[in-house]
Write a structure and sequence with these properties.
eight-stranded parallel beta barrel, disordered C terminus
Protein backbone atom coordinates (compact mmCIF):
# COMPACT_ATOMS: atom_id res chain seq x y z
CA UNK A 1 0.00 0.00 0.00
CA UNK A 2 1.34 3.45 -0.92
CA UNK A 3 1.94 6.31 1.52
CA UNK A 4 -1.19 8.20 0.51
CA UNK A 5 -3.26 5.00 0.50
CA UNK A 6 -2.08 4.32 4.05
CA UNK A 7 -2.91 7.85 5.16
CA UNK A 8 -6.35 7.64 3.56
CA UNK A 9 -6.98 4.26 5.19
CA UNK A 10 -5.91 5.67 8.57
CA UNK A 11 -8.24 8.62 8.04
CA UNK A 12 -11.15 6.29 7.35
CA UNK A 13 -10.39 4.40 10.57
CA UNK A 14 -9.96 7.55 12.65
CA UNK A 15 -6.25 6.86 13.23
CA UNK A 16 -4.07 9.92 13.78
CA UNK A 17 -0.44 10.41 12.77
CA UNK A 18 2.39 12.66 13.92
CA UNK A 19 5.31 13.73 11.73
CA UNK A 20 8.65 15.29 12.60
CA UNK A 21 9.74 17.83 9.98
CA UNK A 22 13.53 17.72 9.72
CA UNK A 23 15.19 20.74 8.12
CA UNK A 24 18.71 19.64 7.15
CA UNK A 25 20.05 23.12 8.02
CA UNK A 26 18.85 22.91 11.63
CA UNK A 27 19.69 19.37 12.73
CA UNK A 28 22.23 18.18 15.32
CA UNK A 29 25.54 16.90 14.01
CA UNK A 30 27.90 14.06 14.80
CA UNK A 31 26.99 11.62 17.55
CA UNK A 32 24.21 13.91 18.80
CA UNK A 33 22.50 13.51 15.42
CA UNK A 34 22.50 9.74 15.82
CA UNK A 35 21.29 9.98 19.42
CA UNK A 36 18.51 12.29 18.23
CA UNK A 37 17.37 9.71 15.67
CA UNK A 38 17.34 7.02 18.34
CA UNK A 39 15.12 9.24 20.50
CA UNK A 40 12.92 9.89 17.49
CA UNK A 41 12.50 6.16 16.93
CA UNK A 42 11.54 5.68 20.58
CA UNK A 43 9.06 8.57 20.53
CA UNK A 44 5.44 8.70 19.37
CA UNK A 45 6.46 10.08 15.95
CA UNK A 46 4.92 7.99 13.16
CA UNK A 47 6.38 9.80 10.11
CA UNK A 48 9.39 11.85 9.13
CA UNK A 49 9.18 14.74 6.66
CA UNK A 50 12.44 16.11 5.26
CA UNK A 51 12.87 19.50 3.59
CA UNK A 52 12.61 23.22 4.10
CA UNK A 53 11.75 26.55 2.49
CA UNK A 54 15.42 27.55 2.25
CA UNK A 55 18.31 25.11 2.52
CA UNK A 56 21.95 26.16 2.39
CA UNK A 57 23.19 22.62 3.01
CA UNK A 58 22.36 20.40 0.06
CA UNK A 59 22.52 17.11 1.97
CA UNK A 60 18.96 15.86 1.75
CA UNK A 61 20.04 12.47 0.36
CA UNK A 62 22.49 11.91 3.22
CA UNK A 63 19.82 12.84 5.78
CA UNK A 64 17.33 10.41 4.24
CA UNK A 65 19.86 7.57 4.27
CA UNK A 66 20.75 8.08 7.93
CA UNK A 67 17.11 8.42 8.99
CA UNK A 68 16.29 5.22 7.09
CA UNK A 69 18.91 3.33 9.09
CA UNK A 70 17.48 4.38 12.48
CA UNK A 71 13.78 5.14 11.99
CA UNK A 72 11.19 2.52 11.06
CA UNK A 73 8.37 4.78 9.87
CA UNK A 74 7.74 6.30 6.43
CA UNK A 75 10.00 9.08 5.16
CA UNK A 76 8.46 11.77 2.97
CA UNK A 77 10.14 14.64 1.13
CA UNK A 78 8.55 18.02 1.81
CA UNK A 79 10.41 20.00 -0.85
CA UNK A 80 10.96 23.73 -0.85
CA UNK A 81 12.71 23.58 -4.22
CA UNK A 82 13.43 21.05 -7.02
CA UNK A 83 16.99 20.43 -5.80
CA UNK A 84 15.56 18.85 -2.64
CA UNK A 85 14.07 16.04 -4.73
CA UNK A 86 16.34 13.02 -4.28
CA UNK A 87 15.98 9.25 -4.13
CA UNK A 88 15.56 7.20 -1.00
CA UNK A 89 12.28 8.48 0.43
CA UNK A 90 8.97 6.62 0.50
CA UNK A 91 7.02 9.50 -1.01
CA UNK A 92 7.21 13.08 -2.21
CA UNK A 93 4.62 15.75 -1.49
CA UNK A 94 4.14 17.35 -4.93
CA UNK A 95 3.13 20.71 -3.51
CA UNK A 96 0.99 23.22 -5.34
CA UNK A 97 0.68 26.51 -3.46
CA UNK A 98 -3.04 26.92 -4.00
CA UNK A 99 -3.40 29.66 -1.37
CA UNK A 100 -1.20 32.04 -3.38
CA UNK A 101 -1.11 33.50 -6.85
CA UNK A 102 2.52 32.86 -7.69
CA UNK A 103 2.44 30.80 -10.91
CA UNK A 104 5.96 29.52 -10.27
CA UNK A 105 4.69 27.57 -7.25
CA UNK A 106 1.38 26.61 -8.81
CA UNK A 107 2.96 24.87 -11.83
CA UNK A 108 6.35 26.39 -12.78
CA UNK A 109 8.60 24.47 -10.36
CA UNK A 110 6.58 21.33 -11.04
CA UNK A 111 7.47 21.43 -14.74
CA UNK A 112 11.11 22.01 -13.80
CA UNK A 113 11.17 18.96 -11.52
CA UNK A 114 8.76 16.59 -13.29
CA UNK A 115 11.16 14.52 -15.39
CA UNK A 116 13.72 14.33 -12.61
CA UNK A 117 11.03 13.02 -10.25
CA UNK A 118 9.84 10.46 -12.78
CA UNK A 119 13.36 9.10 -13.22
CA UNK A 120 13.68 8.68 -9.44
CA UNK A 121 10.52 6.55 -9.40
CA UNK A 122 9.19 8.20 -6.23
CA UNK A 123 5.61 7.93 -5.06
CA UNK A 124 4.03 11.29 -5.86
CA UNK A 125 1.37 12.77 -3.59
CA UNK A 126 -0.35 15.73 -5.31
CA UNK A 127 -0.83 18.08 -2.38
CA UNK A 128 -2.62 21.40 -2.07
CA UNK A 129 -0.33 23.57 0.05
CA UNK A 130 -2.09 26.42 1.85
CA UNK A 131 -0.37 29.11 3.88
CA UNK A 132 -2.66 30.57 6.52
CA UNK A 133 -1.87 33.29 9.05
CA UNK A 134 -1.58 36.96 9.91
CA UNK A 135 2.12 37.54 10.42
CA UNK A 136 4.82 38.26 11.21
CA UNK A 137 6.23 37.12 7.90
CA UNK A 138 7.35 33.48 7.92
CA UNK A 139 10.12 31.94 5.84
CA UNK A 140 7.57 30.06 3.74
CA UNK A 141 5.61 33.22 2.92
CA UNK A 142 8.77 35.18 2.11
CA UNK A 143 10.34 32.50 -0.06
CA UNK A 144 7.08 31.77 -1.89
CA UNK A 145 6.48 35.47 -2.57
CA UNK A 146 2.84 35.01 -1.65
CA UNK A 147 0.43 36.27 0.99
CA UNK A 148 -1.09 33.77 3.42
CA UNK A 149 -4.85 33.51 3.67
CA UNK A 150 -5.87 35.66 6.70
CA UNK A 151 -6.80 33.53 9.69
CA UNK A 152 -10.20 35.21 10.04
CA UNK A 153 -11.18 34.46 6.44
CA UNK A 154 -12.35 30.88 6.94
CA UNK A 155 -14.63 31.11 3.91
CA UNK A 156 -11.59 31.72 1.67
CA UNK A 157 -9.69 28.86 3.30
CA UNK A 158 -12.62 26.47 2.84
CA UNK A 159 -13.27 27.53 -0.76
CA UNK A 160 -9.57 27.12 -1.58
CA UNK A 161 -9.50 23.65 0.00
CA UNK A 162 -12.62 22.57 -1.89
CA UNK A 163 -11.17 23.87 -5.16
CA UNK A 164 -7.98 21.90 -4.52
CA UNK A 165 -9.92 18.72 -3.91
CA UNK A 166 -12.00 19.33 -7.04
CA UNK A 167 -8.75 19.60 -9.01
CA UNK A 168 -7.91 16.07 -7.87
CA UNK A 169 -5.28 16.86 -5.24
CA UNK A 170 -4.81 13.87 -2.96
CA UNK A 171 -4.17 15.74 0.29
CA UNK A 172 -4.30 19.24 1.75
CA UNK A 173 -1.50 20.74 3.84
CA UNK A 174 -2.61 23.68 5.99
CA UNK A 175 0.54 25.46 7.15
CA UNK A 176 1.08 28.49 9.35
CA UNK A 177 4.73 28.43 8.26
CA UNK A 178 7.98 27.71 10.05
CA UNK A 179 8.44 29.96 13.04
CA UNK A 180 4.83 31.13 13.06
CA UNK A 181 3.75 32.63 16.37
CA UNK A 182 0.22 31.30 16.02
CA UNK A 183 -0.84 27.87 14.82
CA UNK A 184 -3.86 27.33 12.61
CA UNK A 185 -6.97 27.49 14.74
CA UNK A 186 -9.02 24.36 15.45
CA UNK A 187 -12.08 26.13 14.06
CA UNK A 188 -10.33 26.59 10.70
CA UNK A 189 -9.24 22.96 10.63
CA UNK A 190 -12.78 21.88 11.49
CA UNK A 191 -14.26 24.08 8.75
CA UNK A 192 -11.97 22.48 6.16
CA UNK A 193 -12.62 18.98 7.55
CA UNK A 194 -16.35 19.51 7.17
CA UNK A 195 -15.91 20.59 3.55
CA UNK A 196 -13.51 18.00 2.08
CA UNK A 197 -12.99 14.24 2.18
CA UNK A 198 -9.27 14.00 1.45
CA UNK A 199 -6.63 13.72 4.22
CA UNK A 200 -5.65 16.94 5.98
CA UNK A 201 -2.09 17.69 7.13
CA UNK A 202 -1.49 20.60 9.51
CA UNK A 203 1.75 22.25 10.57
CA UNK A 204 3.36 25.50 11.66
CA UNK A 205 3.33 27.18 15.06
CA UNK A 206 2.39 24.05 17.01
CA UNK A 207 4.80 23.84 19.92
CA UNK A 208 3.16 21.79 22.65
CA UNK A 209 1.08 18.67 23.25
CA UNK A 210 -2.13 20.67 23.62
CA UNK A 211 -1.69 22.17 20.14
CA UNK A 212 -1.16 18.75 18.59
CA UNK A 213 -4.19 17.33 20.37
CA UNK A 214 -6.37 20.28 19.38
CA UNK A 215 -5.46 19.82 15.70
CA UNK A 216 -6.26 16.10 15.84
CA UNK A 217 -9.56 16.70 17.59
CA UNK A 218 -10.52 19.32 15.00
CA UNK A 219 -10.18 16.77 12.22
CA UNK A 220 -6.52 16.87 11.16
CA UNK A 221 -5.21 13.46 10.11
CA UNK A 222 -1.48 14.16 10.36
CA UNK A 223 0.17 16.88 12.47
CA UNK A 224 3.65 18.08 11.48
CA UNK A 225 6.06 19.36 14.16
CA UNK A 226 9.27 21.14 13.17
CA UNK A 227 10.63 23.99 15.29
CA UNK A 228 9.37 22.51 18.57
CA UNK A 229 11.50 19.42 17.97
CA UNK A 230 14.51 21.33 16.65
CA UNK A 231 14.47 23.62 19.71
CA UNK A 232 14.58 20.72 22.17
CA UNK A 233 15.90 17.66 20.33
CA UNK A 234 16.89 15.90 23.55
CA UNK A 235 13.35 16.09 24.97
CA UNK A 236 10.71 14.27 22.96
CA UNK A 237 8.72 12.69 25.79
CA UNK A 238 6.23 15.59 25.69
CA UNK A 239 4.86 14.42 22.34
CA UNK A 240 1.37 12.90 22.73
CA UNK A 241 0.60 9.44 21.39
CA UNK A 242 -1.61 9.41 18.28
CA UNK A 243 -3.42 6.29 19.44
CA UNK A 244 -4.78 8.17 22.45
CA UNK A 245 -6.65 10.51 20.11
CA UNK A 246 -7.63 8.05 17.43
CA UNK A 247 -11.33 7.33 17.16
CA UNK A 248 -12.26 4.05 15.55
CA UNK A 249 -14.87 4.60 12.88
CA UNK A 250 -16.58 2.41 10.32
CA UNK A 251 -15.22 3.27 6.84
CA UNK A 252 -18.75 2.84 5.53
CA UNK A 253 -19.77 5.80 7.67
CA UNK A 254 -17.27 8.13 5.99
CA UNK A 255 -18.98 11.20 4.52
CA UNK A 256 -20.09 10.97 0.91
Amino acid sequence: MSWIENLTADQALGKKRLAALLDPDDLPTGREWLRFLDRLQQSTITDVFIGGSLLTKHNVADIIQTVRERFNGPITIFPGSPDQVVKGADALLFLSLISGRNPDLLIGRHVEAAMRIRRLNLEIVPTGYMLIGDGPLTTAAYMSNSLPIPSAKKEITVATAVAGEMLGLGALFLDAGSGAQQCISPSTIRAVRDAVQCPIIVGGGINDAAGIQAAWQAGCDLVVIGDAIENRPSQLDWLPHPEAFSVQTNPAEKRL
